[in-house]
Design brief:
Blueprint lengths: L1 H15 L2 H18 L2 H14 L4 H15 L2 H5 L6 H28 L5 H23 L5 H12 L6 H4 L12 H11 L6 H34 L2
Helix pairs in contact: 1-6, 2-6, 3-6, 4-6, 4-7, 4-8, 6-7, 7-8, 7-10, 7-11, 10-11
Length: 232
């Protein structure tokens, strides 16, 4: 029950601070842009938009959330309760993944309607959001202010945007396939073309490895963050 209560609290907190309103507006702007584009560009542009924005919104939002909760001294009361760090991380990841899935699904649903396969699309958005939200918490645990988070975030995530080189046919080194974001692009493109079982196995396996690694790093970084910056 405490996990559900914490998840509900996060959803309400995000709603109250305008996250849903902000992404409703962003989604409307993206839909308008895509509907006005020539049909030949819509598929590739919509994939690019989902890859670079709604799927990774958790990274940027969670940094602000963690630092805002620190400033509001929420951790001082939250973690004297039976809430564990694991519960906190899971709640943050899932609540922001819900927002990413809702925003992305609305954009794709309005623009493409029933002309896409939503299974690889939803897998891509879900796994991408989980991974980047964990990265966002990891970075937030290492900085002191929102400005510092925003200044350092591009350097923190730029390597994960390298698969765009392959997406735009600029380069296709085999090492890109070790990155989880290469798997995201394969799954998103698979929403318009058929994927093999091997494609699904590759994408999910790569993501599970990266998400596990990111979770371990984030857990211990956040534990140290609480000990040195919140309860010191």
């Amino acid at each position: 029950m405490k996990n559900l209560d914490l998840f509900t609290f996060d959803i309400r907190f995000q709603f109250r601070h305008g996250f849903y309103a902000a992404y409703a507006l962003v989604s409307i702007l993206y839909i308008g842009l895509l509907l006005l584009m020539p049909a030949s560009y819509v598929e590739k542009t919509s994939i690019f938009i989902i890859f670079t924005d709604p799927s990774v919104l958790g990274f940027f939002f969670v940094g602000g959330l963690v630092l805002l909760e620190k400033d509001q001294s929420i951790f001082n009361t939250l973690f004297v309760s039976p809430i564990r760090i694991h519960d906190y991380l899971v709640s943050k990841v899932l609540s922001l993944t819900v927002l990413a899935m809702v925003s992305s699904s609305i954009i794709f649903g309005v623009v493409h309607q029933h002309h896409v396969d939503y299974l690889p699309f939803l897998i891509a958005v879900t796994l991408c959001s989980i991974f980047f939200t964990l990265l966002g918490i990891l970075l937030a645990a290492r900085v002191d202010t929102v400005n510092m988070f925003l200044y350092t975030s591009p350097l923190f995530v730029i390597v994960f945007y390298l698969p765009l080189l392959s997406f735009f046919n600029l380069a296709d080194p085999v090492l890109l396939y070790l990155l989880p974001t290469q798997a995201v692009l394969i799954l998103l493109e698979g929403a318009f073309d058929s994927l093999t079982v091997q494609d699904y196995i590759y994408a999910i396996a790569v993501f599970m490895a990266w998400i596990s690694f990111a979770y371990i790093l984030t857990y211990y970084a956040f534990q140290r963050f609480l000990r040195t910056k919140c309860f010191s």
